[in-house]
Fold this protein.
Amino acid sequence: MKLATPWDAVYKQVFVRFLSSLGVPVQTQVEVGRLPKTLDAVVVADESQRAQIVQWFPFNYFQRYNLLEFKSPTDPLTPDEYKRVIARAYLFLAEVGENDLREVTVTIITATKPRKVLKGVPQLVRFAEEASGRYISDDKLSVRVLVAPELPLERRNYLLLLFARGQKLRETLLRLAQEGWWEIVRLAYLLHPKEASEVLAMSRRYPTLEENIRFIVRDLGAEKLLREIVAMMDEDPELARRISREVLVMSRKYPTLEENIRFIVQDLGAEKLLRGIVEELGREKVEQLLREMDEEQKRKRTDGRRRSRKQGR
C-alpha cells in the first residue's frame, strides 16, 4: 500500500520548531468543544513575540490568539471545509472565553489555490487579494488564506514555500541551500525527495551524506528503510555480496514500499543507509527484523502453495 506524503506532519514541524525557538508557545491538534474537533495549530503571542514572528513568517496581522489550518494537495480547502474552520474558530473562542474578535486571527495555508472559496461562493464569503498570494475575507473574524505557490520568494515566506511545486519550489530549495537552512532542507526532502536531491546536488555547501543519514533514518523510519534495502539486495546480487554477512542474513523479496522511500534509498545509497539503520537500531534488532521478514515470506509462500492445491482440486 502506498504511504501518504506527510504534508500535515511537516507543516506542524515547521511551526513548532521555529516558533518554539523564538519562545512563542505553539499547540497542535487543539481540541475544541466536547467532540474531538481539532485545530491544526494555535499560536498565542504577545506584542514582543509577534515582532519576532514577522521576521520569519508573513504574519504581520497576528493578534493575541492565532489559529492555523493547513490544506495539502490531497486535502484542499472547499466551501464546506471553510465553514468547518470558522466553526472550530468560534468553538475555540468559547473555550478561552474571548469575546473580542479583534484579538483573534484565522490563517488557512493552502498548497493549491482554492478558487471556489476565493471567488465562487460570494453568498458565503468574499475575499480580496491583500498582497501577492494572501487573501483576506469579509468575515467578522479576521480570516486570511495564504496560497503557498503564489507567495513571493522572500525570507519570511521560505517556510511556507516548502508547500509550493514546480519551478517555485526548486527556486526556494536552491535559496535555502545557498543560505544554509539545512533543517528546512531536510524537512523538504520528506515532501519532495526528487526535487530536493536535484537542487541540493547543485549546491557546493550541501552537507555530506553522512551528516544527513541519521536524520533520514529517524524521520522515514529505520525499519521501513531496512525493508527497502533488503528488497534492493534481492534485485542486485553484487550489492548483497558487499554487505557484511555478520550484519544481515540474506533474504528473499519483500513488498515494495512507498515510491519516495525507494528513491531516497537509491539516492543516498543502500549501504550508507544500512550503516545508519544498524547504528540506530543495533545489530541484534536488525537481525531480529530480518528473521521476522524471512518468516513472513515463508508463510506467504506456504499459503500460496495451499491455495494453488485447493484450486487444483
Remarks:
- The chain is about 50% helix and 15% strand.
- The longest strand covers residues 37-44.
- The chain has two domains: 7-160, 210-305.
- The chain has a mean pLDDT of 77.
